[in-house]
Protein backbone atom coordinates (compact mmCIF):
# COMPACT_ATOMS: atom_id res chain seq x y z
CA UNK A 1 0.00 0.00 0.00
CA UNK A 2 1.42 3.33 -1.00
CA UNK A 3 1.25 6.34 1.32
CA UNK A 4 0.40 9.77 0.01
CA UNK A 5 2.14 12.67 1.71
CA UNK A 6 -0.46 15.20 2.93
CA UNK A 7 0.55 18.86 2.56
CA UNK A 8 0.48 20.69 5.87
CA UNK A 9 0.06 24.42 6.41
CA UNK A 10 1.52 25.67 9.66
CA UNK A 11 1.34 29.14 11.07
CA UNK A 12 4.21 30.75 12.89
CA UNK A 13 4.02 30.33 16.66
CA UNK A 14 1.78 33.08 18.12
CA UNK A 15 3.59 35.89 19.81
CA UNK A 16 2.95 36.51 23.52
CA UNK A 17 3.88 40.16 23.48
CA UNK A 18 1.65 42.90 22.01
CA UNK A 19 4.68 45.08 21.42
CA UNK A 20 6.35 42.81 18.90
CA UNK A 21 6.10 43.45 15.19
CA UNK A 22 3.47 41.34 13.36
CA UNK A 23 4.78 37.86 12.45
CA UNK A 24 4.77 36.53 8.93
CA UNK A 25 3.06 33.23 8.15
CA UNK A 26 5.29 30.21 7.56
CA UNK A 27 3.90 27.94 4.86
CA UNK A 28 5.51 24.54 5.03
CA UNK A 29 4.84 21.85 2.46
CA UNK A 30 5.46 18.24 3.48
CA UNK A 31 8.84 17.15 2.27
CA UNK A 32 9.60 20.66 1.02
CA UNK A 33 11.58 23.63 2.23
CA UNK A 34 10.17 26.29 4.56
CA UNK A 35 8.95 29.30 2.69
CA UNK A 36 8.40 32.58 4.52
CA UNK A 37 6.27 35.28 2.93
CA UNK A 38 3.81 38.05 3.82
CA UNK A 39 0.27 36.79 3.19
CA UNK A 40 -0.99 39.91 1.41
CA UNK A 41 2.24 41.76 0.78
CA UNK A 42 0.76 44.77 2.64
CA UNK A 43 2.03 45.62 6.09
CA UNK A 44 -0.43 47.70 8.05
CA UNK A 45 0.95 50.82 9.65
CA UNK A 46 -1.45 52.92 11.79
CA UNK A 47 -1.90 56.41 10.37
CA UNK A 48 -0.33 59.11 12.43
CA UNK A 49 -3.70 60.82 12.86
CA UNK A 50 -5.28 57.69 14.29
CA UNK A 51 -2.54 56.91 16.80
CA UNK A 52 -3.51 59.66 19.34
CA UNK A 53 -7.17 58.62 19.16
CA UNK A 54 -6.25 55.02 19.89
CA UNK A 55 -4.07 56.16 22.76
CA UNK A 56 -6.89 58.26 24.26
CA UNK A 57 -9.43 55.47 23.84
CA UNK A 58 -7.26 52.91 25.52
CA UNK A 59 -6.44 55.37 28.33
CA UNK A 60 -10.14 56.04 29.03
CA UNK A 61 -10.95 52.33 28.87
CA UNK A 62 -13.71 53.08 26.32
CA UNK A 63 -13.02 49.97 24.28
CA UNK A 64 -13.77 47.81 27.32
CA UNK A 65 -16.65 49.92 28.59
CA UNK A 66 -19.72 47.63 28.84
CA UNK A 67 -22.21 50.49 29.40
CA UNK A 68 -24.91 50.36 26.71
CA UNK A 69 -25.05 54.16 26.42
CA UNK A 70 -21.45 54.25 25.28
CA UNK A 71 -21.13 54.21 21.52
CA UNK A 72 -18.13 53.56 19.31
CA UNK A 73 -19.90 54.79 16.17
CA UNK A 74 -21.35 58.09 17.38
CA UNK A 75 -20.14 61.36 15.89
CA UNK A 76 -20.63 64.82 17.44
CA UNK A 77 -23.43 65.83 15.02
CA UNK A 78 -25.68 63.11 16.46
CA UNK A 79 -26.51 65.18 19.53
CA UNK A 80 -28.79 64.23 22.41
CA UNK A 81 -31.46 66.48 20.86
CA UNK A 82 -31.33 64.59 17.54
CA UNK A 83 -31.36 61.28 19.41
CA UNK A 84 -34.45 62.33 21.42
CA UNK A 85 -36.25 63.65 18.31
CA UNK A 86 -35.67 60.35 16.47
CA UNK A 87 -36.98 58.40 19.48
CA UNK A 88 -40.06 60.63 19.54
CA UNK A 89 -40.70 59.93 15.86
CA UNK A 90 -40.30 56.18 16.45
CA UNK A 91 -43.11 56.48 19.00
CA UNK A 92 -45.29 58.46 16.54
CA UNK A 93 -44.84 55.81 13.82
CA UNK A 94 -45.65 52.98 16.25
CA UNK A 95 -48.73 54.82 17.54
CA UNK A 96 -50.11 55.35 14.05
CA UNK A 97 -49.36 51.72 13.23
CA UNK A 98 -51.33 50.73 16.36
CA UNK A 99 -54.36 52.84 15.34
CA UNK A 100 -54.31 51.43 11.78
CA UNK A 101 -54.16 47.92 13.21
CA UNK A 102 -57.26 48.66 15.32
CA UNK A 103 -59.11 50.12 12.29
CA UNK A 104 -58.22 47.04 10.24
CA UNK A 105 -59.52 44.79 13.00
CA UNK A 106 -62.81 46.73 13.10
CA UNK A 107 -63.43 46.36 9.33
CA UNK A 108 -62.71 42.62 9.56
CA UNK A 109 -65.53 42.12 12.11
CA UNK A 110 -68.25 39.61 11.13
CA UNK A 111 -70.93 42.35 11.24
CA UNK A 112 -68.85 44.92 9.28
CA UNK A 113 -67.07 42.73 6.69
CA UNK A 114 -65.38 45.29 4.45
CA UNK A 115 -62.29 43.24 3.72
CA UNK A 116 -60.73 45.60 1.19
CA UNK A 117 -60.55 48.39 3.78
CA UNK A 118 -59.44 45.90 6.45
CA UNK A 119 -56.56 44.76 4.25
CA UNK A 120 -55.63 48.34 3.31
CA UNK A 121 -55.25 49.36 6.98
CA UNK A 122 -53.43 46.14 7.84
CA UNK A 123 -50.86 46.96 5.16
CA UNK A 124 -50.66 50.59 6.30
CA UNK A 125 -50.10 49.41 9.86
CA UNK A 126 -47.17 47.30 8.66
CA UNK A 127 -45.83 50.24 6.66
CA UNK A 128 -45.86 52.56 9.68
CA UNK A 129 -44.10 49.86 11.68
CA UNK A 130 -41.47 49.63 8.95
CA UNK A 131 -40.95 53.41 9.29
CA UNK A 132 -40.33 52.91 13.01
CA UNK A 133 -37.85 50.14 12.17
CA UNK A 134 -36.13 52.41 9.65
CA UNK A 135 -35.61 55.05 12.35
CA UNK A 136 -34.44 52.39 14.82
CA UNK A 137 -31.83 51.24 12.29
CA UNK A 138 -30.82 54.85 11.66
CA UNK A 139 -30.45 55.53 15.40
CA UNK A 140 -28.30 52.42 15.88
CA UNK A 141 -26.21 53.21 12.81
CA UNK A 142 -25.46 56.69 14.15
CA UNK A 143 -24.61 55.40 17.62
CA UNK A 144 -27.72 56.87 19.26
CA UNK A 145 -29.73 54.87 21.77
CA UNK A 146 -33.30 53.86 21.02
CA UNK A 147 -35.79 54.47 23.80
CA UNK A 148 -39.24 52.94 23.44
CA UNK A 149 -42.13 54.86 24.94
CA UNK A 150 -45.71 53.87 25.84
CA UNK A 151 -48.37 53.66 23.12
CA UNK A 152 -51.83 55.23 23.37
CA UNK A 153 -54.52 52.51 23.14
CA UNK A 154 -56.72 53.08 20.05
CA UNK A 155 -60.52 53.02 19.90
CA UNK A 156 -62.24 49.75 19.04
CA UNK A 157 -65.26 51.17 17.19
CA UNK A 158 -65.04 53.31 14.04
CA UNK A 159 -68.69 53.73 13.07
CA UNK A 160 -69.95 57.29 12.94
CA UNK A 161 -73.69 58.10 13.02
CA UNK A 162 -73.57 60.64 10.15
CA UNK A 163 -70.47 59.71 8.17
CA UNK A 164 -70.57 55.94 8.44
CA UNK A 165 -67.47 53.87 9.18
CA UNK A 166 -65.50 54.01 5.90
CA UNK A 167 -65.45 57.81 5.57
CA UNK A 168 -64.84 58.26 9.28
CA UNK A 169 -61.86 55.86 9.23
CA UNK A 170 -60.26 57.55 6.21
CA UNK A 171 -60.82 61.04 7.65
CA UNK A 172 -59.09 59.85 10.81
CA UNK A 173 -56.26 58.40 8.70
CA UNK A 174 -55.91 61.73 6.87
CA UNK A 175 -55.65 63.61 10.17
CA UNK A 176 -53.00 61.13 11.37
CA UNK A 177 -50.98 61.38 8.14
CA UNK A 178 -50.97 65.18 8.40
CA UNK A 179 -49.99 64.99 12.06
CA UNK A 180 -47.17 62.65 11.06
CA UNK A 181 -46.05 65.14 8.43
CA UNK A 182 -45.84 67.94 11.01
CA UNK A 183 -43.85 65.65 13.34
CA UNK A 184 -41.46 64.72 10.50
CA UNK A 185 -41.00 68.40 9.71
CA UNK A 186 -40.11 68.98 13.36
CA UNK A 187 -37.57 66.13 13.20
CA UNK A 188 -36.05 67.57 10.05
CA UNK A 189 -35.76 71.03 11.66
CA UNK A 190 -34.05 69.60 14.75
CA UNK A 191 -31.59 67.71 12.55
CA UNK A 192 -31.00 70.77 10.37
CA UNK A 193 -30.18 72.91 13.40
CA UNK A 194 -27.88 70.31 14.93
CA UNK A 195 -26.00 69.44 11.76
CA UNK A 196 -25.31 73.18 11.18
CA UNK A 197 -22.96 73.42 8.19
CA UNK A 198 -23.58 69.84 7.10
CA UNK A 199 -26.86 68.74 5.61
CA UNK A 200 -28.96 66.44 7.78
CA UNK A 201 -29.20 62.82 6.56
CA UNK A 202 -31.20 62.66 3.32
CA UNK A 203 -33.30 59.94 4.96
CA UNK A 204 -35.25 62.63 6.85
CA UNK A 205 -36.01 64.48 3.64
CA UNK A 206 -36.99 61.23 1.88
CA UNK A 207 -39.47 60.52 4.64
CA UNK A 208 -41.05 63.94 4.12
CA UNK A 209 -41.45 63.32 0.39
CA UNK A 210 -43.08 59.95 1.01
CA UNK A 211 -45.38 61.48 3.61
CA UNK A 212 -46.62 64.12 1.16
CA UNK A 213 -47.61 61.37 -1.29
CA UNK A 214 -49.36 59.38 1.47
CA UNK A 215 -51.40 62.47 2.39
CA UNK A 216 -52.51 62.92 -1.22
CA UNK A 217 -53.54 59.27 -1.52
CA UNK A 218 -55.68 59.37 1.63
CA UNK A 219 -57.12 62.76 0.56
CA UNK A 220 -58.23 61.21 -2.74
CA UNK A 221 -59.96 58.40 -0.82
CA UNK A 222 -61.72 60.84 1.52
CA UNK A 223 -62.98 62.87 -1.47
CA UNK A 224 -64.37 59.73 -3.15
CA UNK A 225 -66.04 58.48 0.02
CA UNK A 226 -67.65 61.88 0.63
CA UNK A 227 -69.29 61.63 -2.80
CA UNK A 228 -70.40 58.06 -2.17
CA UNK A 229 -71.94 58.63 1.25
CA UNK A 230 -72.70 55.56 3.33
CA UNK A 231 -74.57 52.48 2.24
CA UNK A 232 -74.46 50.14 -0.72
CA UNK A 233 -71.89 52.15 -2.75
CA UNK A 234 -69.35 51.71 0.06
CA UNK A 235 -69.48 47.96 -0.53
CA UNK A 236 -68.55 48.49 -4.20
CA UNK A 237 -65.79 50.92 -3.23
CA UNK A 238 -64.41 48.33 -0.79
CA UNK A 239 -64.38 45.68 -3.54
CA UNK A 240 -62.59 48.06 -5.91
CA UNK A 241 -60.02 48.86 -3.20
CA UNK A 242 -59.41 45.13 -2.66
CA UNK A 243 -58.78 44.72 -6.39
CA UNK A 244 -56.45 47.73 -6.58
CA UNK A 245 -58.91 49.64 -8.78
CA UNK A 246 -59.46 52.70 -6.59
CA UNK A 247 -57.81 55.64 -8.24
CA UNK A 248 -55.37 57.97 -6.51
CA UNK A 249 -52.71 60.18 -7.91
CA UNK A 250 -49.58 61.85 -6.58
CA UNK A 251 -46.42 63.15 -8.23
CA UNK A 252 -42.89 63.26 -6.88
CA UNK A 253 -42.46 66.33 -4.72
CA UNK A 254 -39.00 67.90 -5.12
CA UNK A 255 -39.57 70.13 -2.09
CA UNK A 256 -41.70 68.83 0.71
FE1 LIG B 1 -44.93 56.74 8.59
TrEMBL record:
<keyword id="KW-0409">Iron storage</keyword>
<comment type="function">
    <text>Stores iron in a soluble, non-toxic, readily available form. Important for iron homeostasis. Iron is taken up in the ferrous form and deposited as ferric hydroxides after oxidation.</text>
</comment>
<dbReference type="InterPro" id="IPR008331">
    <property type="entry name" value="Ferritin_DPS_dom"/>
</dbReference>
<comment type="similarity">
    <text>Belongs to the ferritin family.</text>
</comment>
<dbReference type="GO" id="GO:0008199">
    <property type="term" value="F:ferric iron binding"/>
</dbReference>
<keyword id="KW-0408">Iron</keyword>
<dbReference type="GO" id="GO:0006879">
    <property type="term" value="P:intracellular iron ion homeostasis"/>
</dbReference>
<dbReference type="GO" id="GO:0004322">
    <property type="term" value="F:ferroxidase activity"/>
</dbReference>
<dbReference type="GO" id="GO:0006826">
    <property type="term" value="P:iron ion transport"/>
</dbReference>
<dbReference type="InterPro" id="IPR001519">
    <property type="entry name" value="Ferritin"/>
</dbReference>
<dbReference type="GO" id="GO:0008198">
    <property type="term" value="F:ferrous iron binding"/>
</dbReference>
<keyword id="KW-0479">Metal-binding</keyword>
<keyword id="KW-0560">Oxidoreductase</keyword>
<dbReference type="InterPro" id="IPR009078">
    <property type="entry name" value="Ferritin-like_SF"/>
</dbReference>
<dbReference type="InterPro" id="IPR009040">
    <property type="entry name" value="Ferritin-like_diiron"/>
</dbReference>
<comment type="function">
    <text>Stores iron in a soluble, non-toxic, readily available form. Important for iron homeostasis. Has ferroxidase activity. Iron is taken up in the ferrous form and deposited as ferric hydroxides after oxidation.</text>
</comment>
<comment type="subunit">
    <text>Oligomer of 24 subunits. There are two types of subunits: L (light) chain and H (heavy) chain. The major chain can be light or heavy, depending on the species and tissue type. The functional molecule forms a roughly spherical shell with a diameter of 12 nm and contains a central cavity into which the insoluble mineral iron core is deposited.</text>
</comment>
<feature type="domain" description="Ferritin-like diiron">
    <location>
        <begin position="76"/>
        <end position="229"/>
    </location>
</feature>
<feature type="binding site">
    <location>
        <position position="211"/>
    </location>
    <ligand>
        <name>Fe cation</name>
    </ligand>
</feature>
<feature type="binding site">
    <location>
        <position position="131"/>
    </location>
    <ligand>
        <name>Fe cation</name>
    </ligand>
</feature>
<dbReference type="GO" id="GO:0005737">
    <property type="term" value="C:cytoplasm"/>
</dbReference>
<feature type="binding site">
    <location>
        <position position="128"/>
    </location>
    <ligand>
        <name>Fe cation</name>
    </ligand>
</feature>
<dbReference type="Pfam" id="PF00210">
    <property type="entry name" value="Ferritin"/>
</dbReference>
<protein>
    <recommendedName>
        <fullName>Ferritin</fullName>
        <ecNumber>1.16.3.1</ecNumber>
    </recommendedName>
</protein>
<feature type="binding site">
    <location>
        <position position="93"/>
    </location>
    <ligand>
        <name>Fe cation</name>
    </ligand>
</feature>
<feature type="binding site">
    <location>
        <position position="177"/>
    </location>
    <ligand>
        <name>Fe cation</name>
    </ligand>
</feature>
<dbReference type="InterPro" id="IPR012347">
    <property type="entry name" value="Ferritin-like"/>
</dbReference>
